[in-house]
Amino acid sequence: MDDLQVPIPPRLDGDQLSAYVIEAQRIADEAMLQEEQADACLGMPEEEGAAGDLFQWDKKARPRRFSRRHAVLVEAMPCRSQAKEPVAPPSRKMPPDLHAAVLSFPARLLTYVNEKCGGAAPMAYKRAGVSRQIYSRIVSRDDSTVDKRTAMLFCVGLQLEMKEAELLMKSAGYAFSGTLPEDRVFSYCIEKKIWNLLDINDILVECGLRPLTAEKNPYQ
Predict the structure, then answer these.
(1) Is residue 211 a part of any domain in this protein?
(2) CB neighbour class for 97 (10 Å; exposed up to 12, middle 13-18, buried from 19)
(3) 83-97, 122-136, 182-196: lowest mean pLDDT where?
């Protein structure tokens, strides 16, 4: 089964990639601006060197990142100086999707493998640039945990819609933040159905962000 010939998603041509890069850079700039505005509302001091290139990526110096809980709090906390209009009372919310909440990451991953790949696991993990050993370790235990980037890779390999990607990430304990440039750019790639990892890595790097995979060619 592991010898299954998996068709790799075709790469974008130069003009398409350039157009997506331009839009992704705009989205990343917007996310960074929102993050700075949130910092200003919270009274956080600016970091040294922040006046330079906002997206200059240094492999040795990791950019400052908030935790998921902090990011959610920042997004939910409007700046008082900008809150001029009264806040409308919250509308009645729909009951939560309990079925979506109870599935673990391995269980939801296997569900999507069956739905999207007809149960052919190699098709999922090869298109995600993930090794068979890592995939087997994840699905062998229902309480397996994964890092955020691995979960994002499976979103690409399974070619999920945005809602499906959000559910898979949620089952791993993560969420896409509107103030993190990496999350915004990756979400943009999912929405545009960019499934080739080389294209996604190129777009992230052009925006000054870390690529999803460390390997030059994750499909090898």
Answers:
(1) no
(2) exposed
(3) 83-97
**Is the Cβ–Cβ distance between 180 and 35 less than 8 Å?**
yes
**Residue 143 C-beta-side C-alpha neighbours within 13 Å:** 0
pTM summary value: 0.71
Helix (H, G, I), strand (E, B) or coil at 181: helix
Which domain covers residue 35, as residue numbers? 14-80+98-206
3-state secondary structure of 5: coil
Does residue 8 form part of some domain?
Answer: no
155 located within any domain:
yes
Number of separate domains in the chain: 1
Collect all residues with Cβ–Cβ distance below 8 Å to 100 and sequence separation of at least 6: 167, 170
Give 175-208 pLDDT, tens digit per residue.
999 889 999 999 999 999 999 999 999 999 999 9
